Sequence to fold (106 residues):
Amino acid sequence: MSTDLRGATDQERLTRLRATLTTDFEAQTARLTELTADTGDPGEAHTQAAMIATTRQSLAQIGDALRRMAEGVYGTCERCAAPIPAERLEVLPHARFCVPCQQKHG
Fold:
């Protein structure tokens, strides 16, 4: 994300991250629509299936992040309940875990 979120209040940061996630969700939805259109080329079927799976995974991650925002638990590690640093969320807005927990549990 290109926006510098340092110095922003928590609410401003959350608003910007929500906007970024919403935009990403819309872009991934459009991409999925394009990918699921029948191209008629059986040689591209495997590649297309992989791209569809990746896009669906991205949509699920973004949707989960938006749900956590709505529930008021966004930015809290799902394993240890510690706050996820703003810098991590800036780079990976759909992060569910803090770095130590992510490294421990892959």
